[in-house]
Design goal:
This protein is mostly beta strands and about 250 residues long. About 10% of the residues lie in helices and about 50% in strands. A 9-stranded mixed beta barrel has the order 1-3-4-5-6-7-8-11-12. A hairpin with a 6-residue loop joins strand 7 and strand 8. This is DUF2071 domain-containing protein.
Amino acid sequence: MPAVRPAPEPVVPHPPAAPMPPLLTQSWLDLAFLHWAADPADVAPLLPAGTVPDTFDGVTYVGLVAFRMHRVGALGLPGIPYLGSFPETNVRLYSVDGRGRRGVVFRSLDASRLIPVLVARAAVRLPYVWSRMDIARSGDTLTYTSARRWPGPRGARSRIVLRARDAIGEPTPLEHFLTARWALHSSFFGRTAHLPNVHPPWPLHRAELLECDEDLVAAGGLPAPAGEPVSVLYSPGVPVRFGPQRRPRTGG
């Protein structure tokens, strides 16, 4: 008989465990979260081995997340002011591994700094791509633009304009599902890696989507989104640490 997969871990707004001394530190600022419903059958072939689509009421989601990466640092060293700070736009999916651990799977990560793109592609095998990007703010309206340079498909682009609204006191279960993700899953030299992260609970705001013109989702191997996103959120951001998860203490 096939092995029975454990039930996925609960969705919680706080990280489930503290990491060891962090491998990476960074801040994610001025985030736009756009999400569309997706068919798990379309998502499953795009996930790393041993993971399956994570679903909410039988539906999985594709996310387009634009933000400012701020002062990336490694191994406890201070964040780098220039090379470690840049706009970024991700296409991401949601996964569960064979131990029930939920995560994010990135189909692409557009960034405007070439050196961090090269380092991330070589060192951790994440699908970073070099793009021409900008984030502009006018009052409570933010505009995120991206046009891909390398490795391609050249010219793949996105333009997101949203207006941040009131803070959310208590996110809905779906909003927690889409944002409270405490790890990433990635293919790493033929194996599936699980890298935890910790950060404070998301400060989320309702947002009004004024414009969305993009083809990054289709460039990531997914069907192009049909219609308006089912969820549009904004967050001013959080500081983040990535690292191996601390093992729980056992009684003795």
